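Q: Structure tokens for this one, please.
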Amino acid sequence: MSKKTIIVSNRLPVTVNKNADNSLSFKPSSGGLATGLSTTYKQGGNLWIGWPGTYDHDQKEKEHIGVELKKDNMAPVFLTQEDVLKFYEGYSNKTLWPLFHYFTEYATYEKDLWDSYIHVNEMFRDAILQHAEPEDTIWVHDYQLLLLPGMLREALPNATIGFFQHIPFPSYEIFRLLPWRKETLEGVLGADLIGFHTYDDMRHFLSSVNRLLGYDSSLGLLKVKNRLVSVDAFPMGIDYDKFEKAADSEKTKQKVIAYGDLLSKNKSILSIDRLDYSKGIKHRLLGFDKFLSKYPEYQGQVSLILLVVPSRDKVDQYQHLKEEIDTLVGKINGKYSRMNWSPIHYFYRSFSFEGLSALYKASTVGLVTPLRDGMNLVCKEFVASKTDQQGVLILSEMAGAAKELSEAILINPNDENQIVEALYTALTMPEDEQRSRMKEMQKKVRRYNVHRWVEIFMNQLDNIIERQRAMNMRLLSDESRSKMIEKYTKAQKRIIFLDYDGTLKGFAADPQSVSPDQELREIMKILTKDDRNRVVIISGRDKETLEAWFSDFKVDIIAEHGIWLRRGNTPFEMIDNLNSDWKSKISNILDRYVDRTPGSFVEEKAFSVAWHYRKADADFGDLRARELVGNLNYLISNMNLQVMHGNKVVEVKSQDVNKGKAALKFLADDDYDFVFAAGDDVTDEDTFQALPKKAYTIKVGLGASAARYNLKTVADVRQLLSTFGAIE
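A: Here is the predicted structure, written as tokens:
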């Protein structure tokens, strides 16, 4: 079967309604997402999976809905009334929505709602698994389904999974308030590509991932359990042509005429929002009140057209907000109204597409001032509808669209005085300036339309999959493993170089808490009892620690990245005559960084010194490490020293020694017919480069390396070494 694309969102692009006679009707959605993805899900065997908008259907109705939706390449996820109450109205909109929009005082953290959120995400997963093939592309949308990518990754490890969040992602300081923060991030990280509207959202997400899960990022790329994940910003657009054509259509012209006095007698300021506390509607009304007071000459000359689309009006906060808006509108109209003029025309309902087009086309000013918004497409629709390039957009800095539409009058919506002055500037702006600003905004909105948004996201998803495949091509394949084992079996003289931290044993916050466990001791016991094997532990650790850990085994040791060598039971010897006079100067610098970085500490070795920051705050530790590396490189520019920035450690040692140089000394002791080395970080690259081309070299983890092959984890290395040990 050919691969297909499956779109997944909480709501389908169609709503199922139960009529008075109990029959079912299907009403298509005209939202931006439905428009943008229409050409994707309607092609071939592609599919859109989501909730059809109603609940508690009997089996016969479910079957009927499934059959009807299938005709348009859709499949339903049926929710119960309890699911809608706890998952959608509950956790999604009482926990995630206020938290992600920075309204922490409205967020509730109830375990019962969280359990429902998990349950419904599992329902979506199960619905997808009924249709998905192992290598399909699945694109999951928005905050209601944050756990779904991780659930899908477990069930379909080879699927291509994209995720896009349409609301803001909060800063770490806000996100950390969520009790189930780690589980949420792990769910999202099941995706191959994670998209947000703005770079700020992307940055906040990466910061939370780093601080809470410990994954570092570089240029938006994360290595999650040795899988490459891309995080990027994709500003969503609108169907520009649709709004541009509608603005000049006959239907729109008729609507403008039908609205009569609403649009023709005075200059009009247009405000369109769904009922929500994040939209800043109260602030807007208070600002308009101040405007009419400060500039009384506009009384009777300008009106605010306030459209509020009903939303979640059964929720207490929304009911209260509706009451506040009603009160403010009444107060302002009562304060300023005249017999032939009302300052505010207030509509609490939805408008038809043609009705909205008429309002966009004929309004003088678009007033879009949310307190926090992921993107906000209303401002882009307003711009696209201004075919005569007359009109002014006032836009909140807190809307994602503000990053693109810099020619708008940008304001902080929390400052009512800025709203006042922005309105005055807009209403007095010369036509040529209006035209110049609108022209530039239209160029951007036209180019980055919703179809381009879909295209760019899907192309980037293809790109990250290609990068994953390129990295996975270096993974030790079954065929290469078999050849390696065959060589190992036939060999009579083998030398095996093994790094310790990150290769034989995973990392820990305390470097002294990772002594060999029982499994590793068994592996070493089996490997070293074979007289054909010479096992060399080659590590950055100090010689005393390595000697204590491996005293029970017949191993050679290379310690402190190649400074100290021990053959068998002989005493340690220094690879060269080294000078350590420099250590006190470097140690003093590192001590100052310990003072400045809580949780960090210095590890002293005979001829090297290391600054560890695994226990420090993640972002702060990384910042200090980069600063330290820069300072050290400047300081040692005329000294024969080397700075190595490893996994949460910065180490300084003599430039005359490295693991590769030490490995060659051991290699020169005999004529080996099987050479093997495994390591995980930059210091092991010297070993890989020094060994002959016929050597089997393994880098633990994905990424570029001089090694011939990659293995993903410490467990994979242990499994391979166990295979060696099982060979008689």
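A few notes: The longest helix spans residues 450-472. The two ends are 45 Å apart (CA to CA).
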